[in-house]
Amino acid sequence: MINWVYVVILGLAVGFLSAMFDWPFVVSISIILVFGLCSIGYMFYIAYASTNLAKIRKYIVKHKKDPVMNYIHTLEVGTKEQEIEAMEKIIGHYKQPVIKNTYEMNRAIRLDDFERAQYYADQLMDNQNGPYGKALIAAVAGNREEANSYSLKSEWMKYGIEAQLALTERNLEAFDHFARQSVEAAKGLQRYSLYYSFKKAKMEYEMESK
To answer: What keywords is this UniProt entry annotated with (predicted)?
Structure first.
């Protein structure tokens, strides 16, 4: 997400310095491009490569007006109801079928509406989110054979399914192990999302077990 206020301020600052020092136009444009590329590079690093949860959190909080960032932030600080509300905002905001179907599926799983979740997972079978969703639904139901029958490309997905199976089987030691493995296999926003999703899943499990 580009901070356009920052871009405008940068442009004005470079324009002022250009006039003061009589820089050629190409120099001013080059400075703006360099700063712009650095900003975009940092955005992609945080989103897809960082393993520093504190830095990722700082970025998420700064951009939480974006529906996806707001949802991810809600995983840490919100209730289950607020999570669902945040997903509904994403579904209403984005037009891309993959995004809409993914969050429709996730919302249905969170509501234990597995028939509806299966429907949206079917729409995503040409995307890695579909098989993962189907494996997750099977894991919640405790069907280990089916959960492990889907081909999952990402290591964090494989460990994530094992973590859910362990939770369903009421094996907290195994859950902690596989949840940690899943988080460590992920980077960027996915790492942050998994960390707080697992943390909340364990908390909800412990509350229901009392």
So the answer is: Membrane, Transmembrane, Transmembrane helix
